[in-house]
Structure prediction request, 123 residues.
Amino acid sequence: QVHLVESGGGLVQAGGSLRLSCAASGRTFSSYRMGWFRQAPGKEREFVATISQSGGSTFYADPVKGRFTISRDNAKNTVYLQMNSLKPEDTAVYYCAVARRPWGIDPADFASWGQGTQVTVSS
Prediction:
């Protein structure tokens, strides 16, 4: 089982940027498709982005397309989420997760969730 630890969250003004990191344990990190999700207070967990095992394929939710970039460094067992042009509606706890299936963007398609990192965007 892969253990995940997110970091990089914080408080930022609208229009600003943050880079989230997700460090994974284990020697098989490069075998897994990875994803980022977020959950705002009172809302369900929602998909943000996913990246293939090699990093050659990515897919984004419409609200973040063009502003967020997912990437990974398999040598460092780490997946990143670069967030630019942040908006107050991006405020949420952000989670990374390991995919349990070759495709799918529902939370049920992922396992081994991290503890999350808080992102707060002020207007």
